[in-house]
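sry for the spam today, last one i promise. struct tokens for design, 324 residues
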């Protein structure tokens, strides 16, 4: 059966950077992702510690292996490849590679730093032999990109996204951070998507990772007032393990750019729970200013909670844009 390992250019660059950073020793790591129709699509790289700390062999340190394995299970990823570097020799399996690392079911990528230009080759290994494995690094094609950032892009939502939206917006951990509290069904979400797609006063976009096209959440503008030229900003990153990685800030900046540069809005505002520190910080970083507190405005989790009103004016956004 034919098999091709596909990884993004950015993951390949990260592997090369690791190999250089760990010189003079060999580096090692794992690549995990999804397998479909003879293609292994790498979603995630797990750098491992080389317990041998040697320029001629590697030994994956058990704890880093254990943590990588645990994370793969949690994300539903499967191991697709093992990689290591050869600091001074060609990218061909050594006798030690064959003897120590007999994993016939995954591709072994070897990064050679022997010459100025690094060389990477893929292999299938048995205990005593090896044969070439097919692999490519690709610039991932973005899917319907509408607004493009450095690590994420915003795209229209599709009916195929609905199962993810339903899972996110029923998740208690996500719900406790947003203003609404009611459960959502697939049917309701389908109707919402149709309605929002036709609404002249709403703009909703999915947030996807450039590296893998994975959908992380949704963001947009609501209650757009075309006369007074203001709109309410909304965002929810539903993938909890992607919180705190800068994606929310980047998505907010993309929407603000679109709001002021393309839609010609004058003011973008939002309401956020007063105790939601990461959201407050992300909004402050993108230029939103606190305007006031709506005291005990929202009853949630057994108590009345304050809402903070924040807004950014076009002039403030322009001043910030000129600074960067
Ligand atoms: C709120 C949300 C949009 C923020 O996006 P994110 O990608 O997680 O956040 P970012 O990484 O861009 O920025 C978060 C900032 O808050 C900081 N932060 C995180 N936790 C914090 C805390 N407890 N106290 C203070 N600051 C905190 C981070 O350090 C980071 O600031 P820094 O870059 O200056 O270090 C996202 O977490 C989310 O969608 N959560 C679920 C739904 C939601 O809350 N929606 C918003 C409702 S108003």
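last one done:
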């Amino acid at each position: 059966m034919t098999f091709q390992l596909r990884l993004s250019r950015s993951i390949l660059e990260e592997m090369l950077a690791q190999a250089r950073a760990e010189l003079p020793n060999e580096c090692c790591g794992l690549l995990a992702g999804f397998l479909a129709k003879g293609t292994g699509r790498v979603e995630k790289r797990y750098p491992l510690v080389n317990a041998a700390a040697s320029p001629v062999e590697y030994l994956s340190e058990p704890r880093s292996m254990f943590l990588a394995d645990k994370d793969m299970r949690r994300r539903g990823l499967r191991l697709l490849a093992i990689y290591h570097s050869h600091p001074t020799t060609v990218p061909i399996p050594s006798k030690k590679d064959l003897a120590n690392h007999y994993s016939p079911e995954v591709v072994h990528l070897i990064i050679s730093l022997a010459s100025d230009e690094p060389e990477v080759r893929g292999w299938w290994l048995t205990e005593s032999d090896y044969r070439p494995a097919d692999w490519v690094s690709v610039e991932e094609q973005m899917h319907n990109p509408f607004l493009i950032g450095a690590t994420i892009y915003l795209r229209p939502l599709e009916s195929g996204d609905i199962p993810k939206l339903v899972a996110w917006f029923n998740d208690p951990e996500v719900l406790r951070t947003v203003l609404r509290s009611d459960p959502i069904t697939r049917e309701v979400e389908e109707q919402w998507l149709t309605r929002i797609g036709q609404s002249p006063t709403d703009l909703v976009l999915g947030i996807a990772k450039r590296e893998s096209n994975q959908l992380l959440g949704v963001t947009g503008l609501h209650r757009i007032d075309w006369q007074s030229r203001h709109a309410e900003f909304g965002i929810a990153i539903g993938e909890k393990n992607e919180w705190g990685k800068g994606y929310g800030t980047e998505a907010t900046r993309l929407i603000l750019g679109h709001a002021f540069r393309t839609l010609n809005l004058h003011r973008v505002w939002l309401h956020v729970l007063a105790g939601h520190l990461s959201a407050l910080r992300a909004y402050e970083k993108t230029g939103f200013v606190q305007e006031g507190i709506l005291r005990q405005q929202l009853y949630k989790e057994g108590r009345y909670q304050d809402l903070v009103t924040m807004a950014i004016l076009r002039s403030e956004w322009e001043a910030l844009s000129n600074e960067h």
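The chain has a mean pLDDT of 94. ok im logging off now
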